[in-house]
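User:
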Amino acid sequence: MTNGNPEAELSPISPIDGLSLIIPAYNEEGGIESVLDDAKAVLREIGIPHEIIVVDDSSRDATGRVAEASGVRVLRNIQNGGYGYSLMRGVTAAKYATVAIIDADGSYPVEEFTRLFDEYRRGFAMVVGNREGAQYDGTTQMKILRWAFRSLTQFIVGRSVPDVNSGMRIFDRAIVMPLFPHMSYGFSFTTSITLLFMMRALPVSYVPVAYRKRHGESKVRYFRDSLRALQILTSITARLNPIKLFLLAAGINAVVMLPLVLLLSLWGGGRLMLVLVLETSAILVALGFVVEALVEKRPR
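Assistant: Predicted structure:
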């Protein structure tokens, strides 16, 4: 599925020289061995030169030893740097131009990389595993939070975004590395790479994958990591598409102040308050256009 990019824009890329699979891991001794076994089988099936790099993010368990025993390349962080930091280190160390990433907890179906790779070969800059299934849906609260964040993201980028922060992807290493200064060192790495690709109008495709129950305890802290993702969203938007922030602020101002307008209307002051609210929103929109004109846009 292509998001906002006409089929005519795609052209098959030149033969891929190889594939580097990066697996960040922190205290994942319970699941990493099976992930590595599946990854080796899938990469053999794809049939191109490949490597597997496990970035052990200073685990306190046997994650690194299990990975080394499997015969893959292991990079060890001297201290816990975070999910995004581990991925950046792995991508930097990769020897092939095409990079894939996946989590070490067994929640992603490694065998689906064959479908993602076939899609990537059509000429996309990035292909993402779009998580589906009951395990991904989670609680009602999670559905609402995910819907709100996805809706906000789609408003900012102006494109459909089925899965903002999936950890199963294939992308072009040469495109990603210059973007590192704008990316998160934490779990918001995948959010930031999604935003940066789409706000540069790069072709991104999504392939449905069945999300599974993970091995071990989740490292994600939803409230904390949601705030960090919102920070990343705001920061990237301010640099690349600031008018959207001012439009959003103007809309929030109007919605939040509307109850006060209605309340004051009971005492005859509603009309004046309504004028003030509309003027404030108009000023915010105007400021947005000024900032948009002044900000030096980065090449897309």
